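Morning F.,

Quick status update on the modeling queue. The single chain you submitted on Monday has been processed. Sequence for confirmation:
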Amino acid sequence: MKISLLVVQIAYERDVVLSRQRARQIAALLGFEQQDQVRIATTISELARNIFQYAKKGKIEFFCDDTTSELQVILSDHGHGIPHLKKILEGDYISSTGMGVGLSGAKRLMDTFHIETSPEQGTVITVSKTPLHPASLTKKQITALVTKLTQNHADDPFQEIQRQNQELLTTMEELQQRQIELDQLNHELEDTNRGVVALYAELDEKADYLRRASEIKSRFLSNMTHEFRTPLNSILALSRMLLERLDGELTFDQEKQVTFIRRAATDLSELVNDLLDLSKVEAGKITIRPTEFEIKDLFGALRGMLRPLLSHNSSIQLVFENVDNIPPIFTDESKLSQILRNFISNAIKYTEKGEVRISASYREDKTIVISVKDTGIGIAADDLARIFEEFTQIDGPHQKKVKGTGLGLSLSKKLAEVLGGNVSVESTLHQGSTFSVTLPLVYHHESEPFAASKDLKPIDPNRLPVLILDDNMETLFIYENYLKGSRFQPIPVRTIKQARAILQTLNPSAIILDILLGQENSWGFLSELKQEKNTRNIPIFVITMVENEAKALKSGATAFHLKPIEKDWLLKQLHLIKLPPSSKKFLLIDDDEVSRYIFRGLLSNLSVELFEAAGGHDGIQSAIEKKPDVIFVDIDMPDLNGYDVIEKLQKEELTKNIPIVFYTANIPLPEFVTKFPSIRGTLSKDLSSGETAQAQLLDLVSQIETRNTIV
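C-alpha cells below.
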C-alpha cells in the first residue's frame, strides 16, 4: 500500500536545498545505502531546481510502499511544459540555460522514471527506487518515520552545499576508477565516461576554495594519508595474529585486552576512511607517484574526458596532434593530466569559435613540451604576469559567462615545479593563447638505498621462495609470521630497485606486490613483470590499500586483496599455485553424506580425482582397487571405526605406504597417531570458515608433497 510521507512546496530557491535534505533524510530512514541516498538526493534536487527555474512554483510529494520500502516521489508544477522532451531524454538537446542533462541524468539514477507534460497542464514527473534489501514496514515503523519527518531537522543550506560538494567529489573519483577499469573492454565508452570528470571541474575548484578557508581542517585531512592508514592496518593484522595464537596462548584477560585494541583500531580505521573521503586534494603535502606511460595514451584519455565541454559550442574543434614519435615519459601521470585539463578547459571556456590544438614535442635536452593553443580572446601583455597568481581572474566580457576561483593556473604552475618542470604562456589579444608545460623526460627523485644482497637471508633449498615487495616494516614482519613453518620462504624487499636486483639471480615461486611504495607505485612494475620473458609466468598477488581490483587483474595479477591480509587467504593462494598435478587421486572414507559433500567443496580449486566410500569396509576395498595418493578417514563410523580402518590398511601391501589424514570432529588418540608413520595430520570438521578449512587442506597436501610421499 502506498503511504504519503511528506509534501515539500517549491517556491523559493532555498526550497531546492530543502528538497535535497528531505530526500536524503527519507532515503536514510527507509534503509537505502549511502550511494543510493546520494543518487536519490541528487535526482530530487535536480528536478526541484528545474521546477523553480522554469515553472517558479510546484510541489514534491514523497510516498513509500509498506511491503517493499519502495520510495516514490511525484514532482508537479503548472508551468508551460517541457518542449523538445524526446531530445532532452536522449541527451541530444543543447540548453541555452544549462547543460541540458538534468532529466536524462535523473532517469539513469532512479529505478523508474515517468513524465507527463503539456503547455496547458504543466509537468508531472514520477520517479521511484527500491532499497537493495527490501523490507516490509509495520504500522509502528511508519508512524515513527512520519513523526521524524514532521520534526524540523533541516541543516543549514551552506552545510548542505558542502555535503553535496563532498558527495560529488567522491562520485568523481569513483567514475575515474571505473573509466580506467573499462579501458580494455570498450575504449570509446571509457573516453565518454571520463568526460564526467570534466563536468565537475568547476565544482573541484570551488571545493579547493572552501578547503582553503579552514587551514586547521586542511592540515588534519592532509595527514590522513598512507602513513596514517599503514599503522592502523598493522595494528589490525598484529592483533589478529595474537588472537589466532600464532605465538602462543593468551590468558582470558589478555585476549579481552587484545580484542578491545582490535575493536578500537577498527573503529579508528573506519573514521579515517570517512575523513579521507571528504578531502581529494592534499594540502601542502603532495606525494609524487611516477610511472612510465605514453603521451598518446594520455591524449586519448584527455580527449574523452574533455569532449563533453564542447557540447554547448559546436563551432570549436578539439584537435590532438599525432605524438607517435614522442618517447615514453616517466613522471606522475595524474598530476600532468591535471595540468593539461586546466589548460584545455580554460582554452575551451575562452574560445568562441575556431579550434583548441594540443601538441607535444621532444627536445634534445631530454625534456618534453606539451602545448595547448587556442583561437580565443587572448590575454593582454600587461596581464600575462598576473594570471598564475592565486585567485586572479582577468576582467573581461567573458567573466560574466565563465565562473572559476582563479586557482587553476596557479595550481598548474606549482604542480609543474614539483615535477621538475615549468609552465609558460604566449598570447596575443583577440587572436589566441598558447599555454605550455615543460617536464623532464624522467622525473628524478631520491630513492631508498639498495640493501646489499648479503643482508638477505640465505635461500632454503627445501622451501619455495616468495618475493614480497612492501615498503612497510610491520607488514613485512606480518608476512614472515604468516609463512613461518610453511613450505614458503619470504624474501622481503622495500623498493622496486631491490626487487629488480633480486629477480636477476632468483626465480621466485610467487610475488606479493603492494601498489603504494613511498614515492612510487608499482603499476608499471606489474606490467613490466608480465612483459618480461623470465617473469611473465610468475604468479603475482597484489595486496594493497588501493581499491582497484579490476586494474590489477587486467594487468596480469593472479589475485587481489585489500589490506589487512588474512593468513588463511594468503596460504590458500600460495598453495593453489603449487597444487599436485591432475593425475592425483584422493579417497575419502566417511559414512556421513553431508561431510562428504562439504569435503567435495573443499576440493573445488584442486585438479584431483576424488573417490568416496560410505563406510570402513568399502573404504578398504576402494583403497586396494583405486590406489589413491592420499586417504582421508573419519574416526566415528558404524561398521568399522577409523582406527580399525587404518590398522587394516597398514597390513595390506598395496596400501601400507599411502599417506593418511584424519577428517574428523574428534581428536585422534596420540598413541595411535605416532604408531603409524603414514598418518600425516588431521583436518577438522568443526572449522567455521570454509576458506580456513580449504587453506588447512592445501597446507596438508603441500606438506605431504614436500616430503616426497606423493610421487
